[in-house]
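User: Modeling request: complex.
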Amino acid sequence: MHAETPTRSPNDAPLTPLRFLARSAEVFPSKPAIIYGERRLSYAEFRDAAERMALAIRARITPGDRVAFVAPNIPELLIAHYAVPLAGGVLVALNPRLSRDETVYILNHCGARLLFVDAEFTPVLGDVRAAVDTLTGVIEIADPEFGPAASPSSGPAGERDLGHTPLEAFLAFGDVVSDAMAHPLVWDIDDERAPISINYTSGTTGKPKGVLYSHRGAYLNSLGEVFHNSFRPDSVYLWTLPMFHCNGWCTTWAVTAAGATHVPLRAVRPATVWAAIDDLGVTNLCGAPTVCSIIANADEAHPLVKPLNITTAGAPPSPTVIEQLERLGITVVHVYGLTEVYGPYTICEYQPEWDLLTSAERAVKIARQGVAMVQAESARVVDSAMGDVPRDGITIGEIVLRGNNVMLGYFNDADATAEAFRGGYFHTGDLAVMHPDGYIEIKDRAKDIIISGGENISTIEVENALVSHPAVLDAAVVGVPHPHWGERPKAYIVLRPGHDASAEEILAATKLLIAGFKVPDYVIFVTDLPRTATGKIMKVTLRAA
Amino acid sequence: MHAETPTRSPNDAPLTPLRFLARSAEVFPSKPAIIYGERRLSYAEFRDAAERMALAIRARITPGDRVAFVAPNIPELLIAHYAVPLAGGVLVALNPRLSRDETVYILNHCGARLLFVDAEFTPVLGDVRAAVDTLTGVIEIADPEFGPAASPSSGPAGERDLGHTPLEAFLAFGDVVSDAMAHPLVWDIDDERAPISINYTSGTTGKPKGVLYSHRGAYLNSLGEVFHNSFRPDSVYLWTLPMFHCNGWCTTWAVTAAGATHVPLRAVRPATVWAAIDDLGVTNLCGAPTVCSIIANADEAHPLVKPLNITTAGAPPSPTVIEQLERLGITVVHVYGLTEVYGPYTICEYQPEWDLLTSAERAVKIARQGVAMVQAESARVVDSAMGDVPRDGITIGEIVLRGNNVMLGYFNDADATAEAFRGGYFHTGDLAVMHPDGYIEIKDRAKDIIISGGENISTIEVENALVSHPAVLDAAVVGVPHPHWGERPKAYIVLRPGHDASAEEILAATKLLIAGFKVPDYVIFVTDLPRTATGKIMKVTLRAA
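Assistant: Request completed. Predicted assembly structure:
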């Protein structure tokens, strides 16, 4: 690997998260890197698994090709965060709960060359290859924690009816070995501003957009995560946060940078989470307020001796839950960000003087979105002329951001990129106030997004699905508070004159179009929707109803 | 500051340590940033002091000009680490213990435009302006911890006989205010690969060389220091390490990045160090093994309750001192680096299984130089053909390094740069072995190794064996010419106060620890060893004796 003389200057090393696994595998070869049920991978085995996957991928793509994953938090998805860029590819990790149409749209939009699917989700996707022209292979991952692949493989190359290749067959192709000898893998890149991944938004303004992350941005955000989460070599990180969300807020890379231990979780269930906390000595986890709520309200919940840090985002954690967790000895850190800024961008940095506050007063402080992370530029709250709003905690403006943790842009969407980047800043669409201490507090979402169980639900997308029913004339969706999920969608529907349909019928039809978690819980039939003079639905009025 | 639309892309923010003070002043405005005797500066005051100094400097230089400091660890030198780059200058921090000739040489070599001198050292420098053509001003800093300036200032502008300007007069020049309003300071830079500082080597191979640090390298090394030192907002950092040495191994910037508290020390005295540890709750300090020895052997030494981490480099700490410190509850982290790599480059990363070792066995492990820091590329040990030596712990090669923590080059010395960078790596001149676990262990400086009868003798190994004798406080070994063997080792030994031992006794004990051919032929008892300001033993002086 080091045999040849480098052509770069000795002080020129492009920043890439690949370095983190290369280093930790050198420094902590026998240390547990991944603990998943009965599976244990040391850091050397983690690196070797990434190299094995990378060789198989590299043999089938050209540099820059997109490699997609539809999987929950399984080790293979974590390994892919290194294997795909190591192979020269760009990782696209999708939410496996998306509908087939949504997944197909994204695969076509990014022009995915390869698709890896967890066996639980192959039945939903069906013959995806027929629907995505660019795909040259679909690889099925049989996870023992879920169960073996639904149908046995057949044929010498392991091909099956739908043309899916079992993962092991994919990895075992004979050409890989000779290729590895002729062209060893290099844990290095040429251009730190090249894309490492594309993370699709939930499509707040219609179709999902592909957010391009660079090696440099991912590297720097990872070091920020390491600092703010206090990741150390003896940290144990529980994967309650989906890796398909902003690459797990870059902790897929940050935990590895620290040489800490990853504990992937296929599903977030109270008993499983508490078992991991108790048996594996979990020190850190991240997740939406729903995750906080699950942990606080579990039957298994009990006070902890070893410190546990929960970093939460998506919506401010409720003071009640913060107090519950504090009583268990759990520290809650509140962060704020978006897909476009690699996950968290601000952190509600704890101030020593907050120790003097009552628990309730402290919870109010902790629920604020806070200040820029160490690797980020200062967050601003601006008026429509891009001037800073006063630091009065009252005047509402839009949060705009710039710096290394702003995306390269939207993949193949120059117009949307230009619109998001107007005025030299990334426009979050989030409305907030700036407090006198420089802490940001979000007041509303300009785009009316609903956050349910940590998942973004675009009201526009749900409305479009509802309106596609022949009996529906018009629809408006708003979020309503929900004790467990944070928010759930509620639909106001105007029926087409002369048509009739029950709420059940409409929702059943909607479920064919969008993911189940996006389907409204409540339906109200109305004769008219409140609108502004320019025709915009007044959601404020609906929410107040 | 944010009023204008940035011309850069929203995702383009050049890396600079300036950001760390800008952020910490925003996030922790009233938190103690600097504690120095009776002086207390909050983070807002630290930033304001940097801006005040920057405005005064900017009015007197053109961008890229060198601004030199001859001072011990006083707050002004720390402030200058932000003020000088903020003013567009390049910081040159000199060892104030250099002779006048050495200082004048460096000032001329870097073409210093401004010189700041602590009042203790103005008498030594005399009329330095006459000796350095490029200098347009000499500013004298009167530190209350040392005493007021030797002579009173005179004249309205505060000019004095030697043309020195008192610091306060320099900062107060009237044009500064209007300049600040017309051109506000920008905590930002255009090019992250531009120089931020020049650190002069101690000139072991002739004249000192000026090592160029970039904003990018300093930023990344700082984040590495934050991680490996576990700097947190509540850390308290004692300045036992000179700031003029590699900008304090970049901890001038790293401690600020974490929002932690700096405690500068004008001089390292056992009573002062222990008072700071006890009264201010010091959590971290760095220094040469001499500092470890001073702390371990102080009359005030006592076991600690609050964790204290000492990071040491310059020479491997002796197992004896490591054991002494561990008994006090102090953790010793051993790092290795050079001026050319921003200070530390490798760290002896602690392995969990070392817990099972005896204290003596563990000390042997901790004394190794270790592995690359998180932000650095892997360190290599190579033979003369740039091939990696076997990982056998025996074969000696040269340590070569590359990556973001390698200097830009030597200032105005293309030949020396090319020589140091041959083969695409920075050549350290340090001879080491690579252990099977990938840990580097230095056997000697290329010029310090003793070759006796064709066998390499590591002077470090012999010194460690000598120091393990209970009567020996300190030891240095050099090679002396021998008609038969070529060279033979000669030891200089400092006895522990109140202890006594003959040369024969000490050598007999040494023979139980190392091979007979490595045992010194000659022993000289001395009361002190000649050391550089950074704690390195000046073997050149001993060899010449």
